Amino acid sequence: MRRRQFVRNTVIFTMGTLVIPETNVFASISQKESNTIDLKPFAVSIEKILISGFIKDFETLQPIPDAKMIVSVKRNRFFPTYRKLESKNGSYTINSGFTASGKISEKLEIKITADGYKDYKGYLYLTKNGCNLHSSEWDYNPNFFTDYCPKNSKSVDEIISKFNFHLLKELI
């Protein structure tokens, strides 16, 4: 009897979780009005990681206004998490964290589109040591400098990473 009750409660919880997206539950600001993407896990996170920077033109190093960013992270086998951001001034911030259960790394797939620029698709790895770049960055831009790689600074319970995405102009 207890097992049936447990299964029934689990099904109700799972359906409620799938029907109600977490952004409506936790976010008080619409994602379209903010330059922040929140990818914090449901469980209490022990270590927080904050990635921030700008979406810039590779040649002029000026921020690109009106860039659209889609970040996806796959936390379990069945349901990836997608978040969208429309940057008005070219800046972005991604909040994430690690739980006590100890997943030590996370792969973020990032897609960026902006008018007049090549579409960007790349990956960032979040670890307990900070943010790391995937080698696909050099496939997108062979002239990418290693000086542009993420800069990580770690405090007691928070890691702050600074990273700017550099987009290439679309060739006509």
Q: How many separate domains make up the residues?
A: 1
CATH class descriptor: Mainly Beta
Q: Mind telling me the C-alpha Rg?
A: 18 Å
Strand content: 35-45%
CATH topology: Protocatechuate 3,4-Dioxygenase, subunit A
**Largest sheet report:** 6 strands, mixed
Please report the number of helical segments.
Answer: 3
Instruction: Please mark out the parts with pLDDT under 50 across 5 or more consecutive residues, or reply none.
Output: 21-32
The CATH superfamily is Aromatic compound dioxygenase
Output the helix-strand order. HHEEEEEEEEHEEE
Average pLDDT confidence is 77
> So what's the overall shape?
elongated
| Number of E-type strands | 11
CATH structural architecture: Sandwich
**Cα distance spanning the termini:** 68 Å
Structural class estimated from helices and strands? alpha/beta
Helix content: 10-25%
Commentary on this structure:
The chain is α/β, with parallel strands linked by helices. It has a single domain, classed as Aromatic compound dioxygenase (Protocatechuate 3,4-Dioxygenase, subunit A, Sandwich), CATH 2.60.130.10. It is 16% helix and 42% strand. The protein is built from three helices and eleven strands. It has helices spanning 2-19, 22-26, 137-140, and strands at 36-38, 45-57, 67-73, 81-87, 91-99, 105-113, 120-127, 130-133, 151-154, 158-162, 165-167. Strands 1, 2, 5, 9, 10 and 11 form a six-stranded mixed sheet that branches. The longest helix has 18 residues, at 2-19. The radius of gyration is 18 Å and the shape is elongated. The protein starts with a helix and ends in a 5-residue tail after the last strand.
